[in-house]
């Protein structure tokens, strides 16, 4: 059985899927979608993903888009008894809450600030920065104040999602040093995750270089 992942290596939305699969030891058949050549606009890709974006997972004929849905699916199917996505309804709800906080608030506001600089060559927007700083403060001062991980005291798929979002800021050399709880969490994950270099350091560096080349 083959599990295809249509993706871009340095995409902030693809990296949580790559990290989850690597952590769960789920093999993926990786297929790069060349957005810069318009491959995502072709009819054959639109059939898989009507949103014409990445990532898209195809598992034995089952097709799924949206990165946070994909990582939940992978955990449900391939590690149903793992704490990475707890069975307990209350614990799982906390993980889901953080996934929704990420995609609806944190990652959205970070990308709203980064995208104009990377794709439109615009200078940093102070108002857009204030928007994601508000969510960084919530992450730092509330969610990570009393816990080692974003959804409690053990690693979950929510950590992979938010890790990708937060480290995307490094592509523009954003300084996170004043966020003590976030930096401690990042240090903890860097020591814990054997794929940190592959799915954090290297793709962030590649995205940073891409932004510079388009400046």
Report on this structure:
By secondary structure, the protein is α+β, with helices and mostly antiparallel strands. It has two domains: 3-79, Glutaredoxin (3-Layer(aba) Sandwich); 89-214, Glutathione S-transferase Yfyf (Class Pi), Chain A, domain 2, CATH 1.20.1050. The chain contains eight helices and four strands, in the order βαβαββαααααα. It has a four-stranded mixed sheet, covered by helices on one side. The protein is globular. The chain starts with a strand and ends with a helix. Residues 88-207 form the GST C-terminal domain. One of its GO terms (molecular function) is glutathione transferase activity. Keywords: Transferase. Residues 1-82 form the GST N-terminal domain. This is Glutathione S-transferase 1: isoform D-like protein.
Whole-number tally of structural domains: 2
How much is the radius of gyration in Å? 17 Å
CATH architecture of the largest domain: Up-down Bundle
Order of helices and strands: EHEHEEHHHHHH
Unreliable stretches (pLDDT < 50, length at least 5) are: none
Given the structure, what is the number of helices?
Answer: 8
Report the principal-axis shape: globular
Mean pLDDT: 96
CATH topology of the largest domain: Glutathione S-transferase Yfyf (Class Pi), Chain A, domain 2
Measured by DSSP, the beta-strand proportion falls in 5-15%
Kindly report the spatial arrangement of strands forming the biggest sheet.
2-1-3-4
Biggest sheet statistics: 4 strands, mixed
Helix content: 55-70%
Helix and strand composition category:
alpha+beta
CATH class designation of the largest domain: Mainly Alpha
CA(first)-CA(last) distance: 43 Å
- Could you give the count of β-strands? 4
């Amino acid at each position: 059985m083959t599990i295809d992942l249509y993706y871009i290596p340095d995409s902030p939305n693809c990296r949580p899927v790559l990290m989850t699969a690597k952590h769960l030891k789920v093999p993926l058949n990786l297929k790069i979608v060349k957005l810069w050549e318009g491959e995502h606009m072709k009819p054959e890709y639109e059939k898989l993903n009507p949103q014409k974006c990445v990532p898209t997972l195809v598992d034995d004929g089952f097709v799924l888009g949206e990165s946070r849905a994909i990582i939940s699916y992978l955990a449900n199917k391939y590690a149903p008894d793992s704490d990475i996505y707890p069975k307990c309804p209350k614990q799982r709800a906390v993980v889901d809450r953080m996934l929704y906080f990420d995609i609806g608030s944190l990652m959205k506001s970070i990308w709203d600030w980064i995208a104009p600089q990377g794709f439109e060559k615009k200078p940093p927007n102070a108002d857009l920065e204030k928007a994601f700083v508000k969510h960084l403060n919530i992450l730092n001062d509330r969610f990570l104040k009393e816990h080692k991980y974003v959804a409690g005291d053990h690693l979950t798929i929510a950590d992979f999602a938010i890790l990708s979002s937060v480290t995307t800021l490094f592509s523009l050399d954003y300084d996170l040093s004043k966020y003590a709880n976030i930096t401690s969490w990042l240090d903890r994950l860097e020591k814990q995750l054997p794929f940190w270099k592959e799915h954090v350091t290297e793709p962030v560096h590649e995205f940073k270089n891409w932004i510079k080349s388009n400046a």
